Amino acid sequence: MNARLVSAPLAIALATLFAMSPPAFAERSDRDQPVNIEADNMTVDDRNKVHVFEGGVVLTQGSLVIRGDKLVVTQDAAGFQNGVATASGGKLATFRQKREGTNEFVDGEAERIEYDSRNERARLFNRARVTSGGDEVRGAYIEYDAITENYLATNAPGGGKPAASGDTRVRAVIQPKNDNKPAAAQ
What we know:
Elements: E1 2-6, E2 36-38, E3 41-45, E4 50-61, E5 64-75, E6 81-86, E7 93-98, E8 105-110, E9 112-116, E10 121-132, E11 135-145, E12 150-154, E13 171-173
């Protein structure tokens, strides 16, 4: 079963997953900050434009923080980057970023998190979860398109057949946004 959700607030920072090309929805000042990456090991293949970071990887850029056991960043001929963060041993790769103009953060986790800066698209694979405030979406696959501001949560990438094990349902909790809260008692 597939579920399509459009313009949900919790999807705002998914596309900013990797600091290479964040859209306007995330903390705008983040894109002007330096990218810092810490890892136990780093391998650089300049000819093929591939950087591999391994072992307790932490990428920070402003309020953006990405954690995983491995981060592979590739660059195409036009200069666009693709990043893949993964975790091992049953753990999940994670990201966290402050939303523009609020004190809220968007948090995400999955076994594999991919970001395509050319198409401004983030994809979370296997045990995917994204939260913002009290809102939460879970599924085997979550994809966010920053250009159209749409996201898709399914039980399998591309609407394919779900994995034989685990829950095959997409789950969402969306909190009411009530601006008419009663005034505090005086």
